[in-house]
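Technical note accompanying the year-one report. For the benefit of new consortium partners, we illustrate the data format agreed upon in the data management plan: each record pairs a sequence with a structure-token string. No post-processing was applied to the example shown here.
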Amino acid sequence: MHAHRYSALEIGLRFARAWRVPLLVAGAALIVIATLVVLGTLRLQAQRDRALAAEDEARAALAASDRNLAAALVAQARAADERGAHAVKEVLAAHALRLVDSPEARGILAGARAAARPKRLATAALPHCHPLVALAVDDVVCAEGTSCAA
């Protein structure tokens, strides 16, 4: 008696015929799963693109609001300059420069820096007493004990 030797192809075909229904169900399930994965990936990419576009819009809106705020601060600095409020003018112009690089704000600050500032013209050593009033650099009214000396 001789046994018949089956080839790998014949064994595969016999297996497929014997397990036809379960293999078809498994194949259909794999196709459904692959389709869901592809569709999920496409939806995820679309959501990501929408999120990136929204982020770009938000950044553009933020930049526009910074420009508008800087322009308003520069206008307030000009008004403060007309009122003579130099410290307020400098603070507003500096805040505008912190938001955006504004030539107008730089000009306001440059003008504020060019304005006359108090400077120390002379110094003098005080006498060894308790100074009460300094009339000039050389004239100081001092208190020594309970009496006044000039």
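Partners are asked to follow this layout when depositing records. Strands lie at 130-134, 140-144, 147-149.
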